[in-house]
Amino acid sequence: MAAQSFTVELTEDQARIVPEIAEAHGIKPDAVLIEAIGHGLAMIVAGVNEDELVEPWDRPEPNPPKRKQRGKMPSLTGGKGDSDMGGDIPF
Prior knowledge:
91 residues, mainly alpha, 34% helix, elongated
């Protein structure tokens, strides 16, 4: 296969963030671009419709898991109140 070359034009935001991503992952900026292009091609091959994608900031907030209500803690005085034991814990 013959060597291929191509030119990529980046937006201002992309030009700013590509070096940051590269530095964070310890790879060259070219590698970040190649991975991004590969990811985009994989989405095209998979038939992903760009119009159906949801940006992370557009996603609805997930419902937080409901906390399970705990029952009442058993009384150290057997539920009879402190009067039977003078208010002391029987240890």
